[in-house]
Amino acid sequence: MIPTWDWCFRKEGWPVSRLLVYLIPFLVIAVFVAMARYERRFAHDPTHKGFFERNGTTLGIVFIALVAFWTLFLVVLPYLYMVQESFHPKLVAADRGGPKDILTTEQYRSFFVQPTDGEINTTHMGAFIFTLVISAIVTVLNFAICYPLAYYMAQAGSVQKVRLLMLALIVPYWVNEILRAFSLRLLLASKGLINQALMGLGLTDAPIDFLGSNVGLYVGLSYAYLLVMMFPLYNAVESLDKNQIEAARDLGAPWWRIHKDVVIPYAKPGIASGCTMVFMLSAGSLAAPQFLGGPKTLWFTSIVYDFFFQAFNWPRGAAYAFLLLAGCIALVMLMLRLFKVSLGETIK
Amino acid sequence: MSSQTIIKVMIGFYVALFFAYLFGPLAVMSVTAFNTPSYPSAYPLEGFTLDWFVKLWNHRAMMEGLRNSIIIGIGVICVSVPVGLAAAVVMNQIYHRARSLYYLVTVSPVLTPGVIIGISTVIFWRDFSEMTGTRGFFYKGIMLSIFGQSSFIAAYCLLIIMARLQRFDRAQEEAALDLGASYPQVFWHILLPFLRPALVSASVIAFLSSFENYNTTTFAILADKTLVTVLAGEVRQGTTPALSALAVIIIALSLLGAIAYEVVKRREERRSARIAERAKLAERGDLAAAVA
């Protein structure tokens, strides 16, 4: 009997979608091993030895096993499974792998068109755009806040001073994200300290609704990822030769041109990596929107969260998670292209 | 000259503002932990109390969460430090495009939103454990949290260990090999001791990142609880100064850690300065002074 289209995409046995899930990692491994063996010949490696010769058989096997476990079972396979899940309908456990378990794009379609009434899904698309735009703004804001201090620490501070400043930067980050969001809520709530102060000074009569108007959310996101911006910036500026700045100054460059034409072009990879990290983290953040966002604010991760914990619609949650990842990566790539930074530079 | 003083004052003002932004919220929260009103407020100070610490101690769910968090943290160290070490050694032995591909795969979890790591971990292990009939062993909140967190914490460990490995002098390895050591012996007796500081800091970072993780854990923990997910539930329900009390404890521990680190560093610096001084004296042939 010739297998039908339907049969191919069921979960019984080894349907195509699952075969693909396992085939892709093996292809990647095959390509990787071939490349590694081929390129070792040109690497000017003084030992000229194969992997197992160099590390001993036992150690070599242990290394490979650990790395394979990580990359396969903790990284690649989970991603692929999530993508596979997003192409399935919502089913109860008993139906999974049964005849109803077909391959479908309904989860992705539901992002654009409401499945219930056929209307355009403005709620979710709006939340998607809102999330990306606000994350981008937070990224720019954090860059503006961190750049002066990073520059100051990297170029002006003594070793001891920098170490103290670093410690002072790190210590608040040992307090977890939830408690930091909580602390901001105490400040910004309608009965919080800032409103008390504003009213005490007679600047306003009624408390300002910082949380409802999303000010809390923006501050919370910026506050949460300040350090993530600071470190790459500091590292990038720190390796700049001070003589270059001196030279620019001697040639009569005003301070803003020193930054625009000397420091920032030099630190571009660090800036790009800091911005990428902050953007990805804030687009994927859960604590700040949950605890500091207004009641009507829809952050995209909160929608994903609700699909898992309230609607129990895992396939749709997976589809939305994948959309978020794809959207973020697309935007980051676009920005890197615009500012002419290569991805390789960024992650190094 | 006066324009330079203006710039200095401005920088000072900016640094002060920056750290006020960083520490202000935490300071206010700490005050609420000692204030009597049951809604956490810093002002007015109605009275000093330690009741909120007692409440915290008696909070059963939080203590259970703390226990799970510690178990998960230790599990994450056990998985991600060896994995990071192995990955760094492998990275050191591949080149060019193979290295770029390897780097992309291993560092991608750092950039992936934690929510997505949590979701994908749960979905994968649900299906995988069903397929292999190991559901009772793998499909557990603590196990999944260890796996989910390790996927990106191992990458942190890789980066930390890699940074030190790049400063390893290959001449040491060659000397050992010339003296008849085997490659595994080089690894155990030369490379591993050299990497020890990096392994220690990787373990510390691994534990701390695991302990405070929320995005991945909230999915991966399933029906169980960690300290952070309990906290999140509490904050969602409303606010109590007991949370501030917990923050005070964490801040105090962090400060102690930071001070200890600074003291150790200063002592090290003094010691190395002394050694340098002696070396200089010895160079001059002034051995007597060096011994004294």
Strand content of chain A: under 5%
Q: Could you tell me the strand content of chain B as a percent range?
A: under 5%
Uncertain segments of chain A are 1-11
Whole-angstrom Rg of chain B = 25 Å
Do you know the CATH topology of the largest domain in chain A?
MetI-like fold
Over all CA atoms, what is the radius of gyration of chain A? 26 Å
Architecture overview:
- The complex is a heterodimer of chains A (about 350) and B (about 290).
- Chain A contains 18 helices and no strands.
- Chain A is an all-alpha fold.
- Chain A folds into two domains: about 5-105, no CATH class; about 120-345, MetI-like fold (Orthogonal Bundle).
- In chain A, helix 11 (about 225-240) runs antiparallel to helix 14 (about 270-285).
- Chain B has about 290 residues and is mostly helical.
- Chain B is globular and about 70 Å long.
- Classes of the chains: A mainly alpha (about 350), B mainly alpha (about 290).
- Chains A and B meet through helix 2, helix 3, helix 4, helix 6 and helix 7 of A and helix 1, helix 3, helix 4, helix 5 and helix 7 of B.
Please give the structural blueprint.
The complex is a heterodimer of chains A (348) and B (292).
Chain A (H helix, E strand, L loop, with lengths): L4 H4 L7 H25 L10 H5 L1 H30 L19 H7 L9 H34 L3 H12 L6 H12 L4 H8 L14 H10 L1 H13 L3 H9 L4 H12 L1 H16 L3 H6 L7 H10 L4 H25 L4 H5 L1
Helix pairs in contact in A: 2-4, 4-17, 5-17, 6-10, 6-11, 6-14, 8-10, 11-14, 12-13, 14-17, 16-17
Chain B lengths: L1 H33 L16 H7 L2 H32 L4 H16 L2 H19 L2 H4 L2 H25 L4 H9 L4 H30 L2 H6 L6 H11 L3 H43 L3 H5 L1
Helix pairs in contact in B: 1-12, 2-12, 3-7, 3-9, 3-11, 4-7, 5-7, 7-9, 8-9
Briefly characterize the structure.
With 348 residues, chain A is mainly α.
Structure keywords:
heterodimer, A: 348 residues, mainly alpha, MetI-like fold, 2 domains, 18 helices, 70% helix, 0% strand, B: 292 residues, 13 helices
